[in-house]
Amino acid sequence: MNCLAKIFVARARRILPASLPLLLSAIACSAYAQTSDPCKTQSNTVEINQCARQTLETKDRELNEMYKHLLNSLVSQAKEAQVEYAEVRKMLQEAQRSWVKFRDADCNAKLSLWEQGSIRGAIYLGCLIERTEQRINELRTWSAG
Known about the structure:
Elements: H1 3-35, H2 38-41, H3 45-81, H4 85-113, H5 120-144
Helix pairs in contact: 3-4, 3-5, 4-5
């Protein structure tokens, strides 16, 4: 071990015990900050985007549940209307695929408009959330039909 390394180790041994609680507190706070809910803090762009991603994931699950619910409710609605369930289901699937294309194109246009800004992620994710909420409401209304 060279002389400089020996001095560093000797100083670290004297300093470390006194600063160990501070060091452990800093590590704990850092770990907490990484696992805390970004939707509660939102103090920077990264947290705003993380919150929006979490919200979008929740809305996407909601959309999938509503879509499945509607598909299941179509069986009885088709019988009442005396139409073929398979045909109605096929049309709904085509409509959903078209809606996904519309949503993606619409939100990609907004993303392109704000391509140079740090707000682009929030704008894009906000668009996806808004369109998904609208579709959930459309499917809910149809399901209640």
